[in-house]
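Subject: for your reference before the review

Hello V.,

The reviewers asked for a structural picture of the protein, and I figured it would be easier to keep everything in one thread rather than splitting it across files. Below is the amino acid sequence we used in the manuscript, unchanged from the supplementary table.
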Amino acid sequence: MKIVRVGDVGHERPGVVLDDGRVAYLPSTMGDVDAAFWNRQAVAEISNLLAAGSLTDIAPRGTRFAAPIAKPEKIVCIGLNYSDHALESGQPVPKEPIIFMKSPGTIVGPNDEILVPRGSLKTDWEVELGVVIGRRARYLATPEEAAAYVAGYCVSHDVSEREWQLERGSQWDRGKSCETFNPLGPWLVTPDEVPDPQNLTMGLSVNGVLRQNGSTADMIFGVNYLLWYLSQYMVLEPGDLINTGTPAGVSLGHDDVAYLRAGDEVSLRISGLGQQRSLLGQA
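And here is what came back from the structure prediction:
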């Protein structure tokens, strides 16, 4: 199942992608795709509505895709989770997951404009597998148990300002939480359609030039391990987003690869999870 939110900014409506590619709106009684949505076992409810042929309110073609989730309590990010990215960043391969937080206000739609912050010289790209939590996760017993707590997977763009992240103290959040710095979507794909989250190809291009070409198989810490690990240190709530790290190919560490500027175009993809395309503007 592919869960979406479509509509102009401030007027987004939840929906589901039908077999023919059209988007059917969900009943207004289901609310938005937030914590309450997952707490009410929404996927089973949508399945029943689809089986009954009850979803007949169709979004017009060309309607804007918004981020597929609304109002996460938090975005938890994992740094240097691919050894090739750690190498290009000049950092040692971590022995434990590196955790940092990102403001939920950074989330925008998959094709929305990304704003280069005022004064930024090192705005960088990162294609990542996003994992959305479907059940409250607290002190999970084993990594294997974690799979049952996943609501779905999506393409996540962890945009970063490297000077602010790395050259002005040890607080990564400064370079991660600028407005528009987390395009998300186009849809959230439920686990039944992603049999192995550690076998997904991923890529990112800037102005048509392939910059990142990797696979989630190369993660140092896999999805289930990450959720188990995080649950030992914080409570993961329904609707929370976990950004699981990026493979090699970012501008950081490559003097011959320019950072992003207004007017650039960035395209992202993850197999089975869709594609994004964003233009860069100036804040």
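For the response letter, the relevant points are probably these. The two ends are 36 Å apart (CA to CA). The longest strand covers residues 274-282.

Happy to draft the paragraph if you're swamped.

O.
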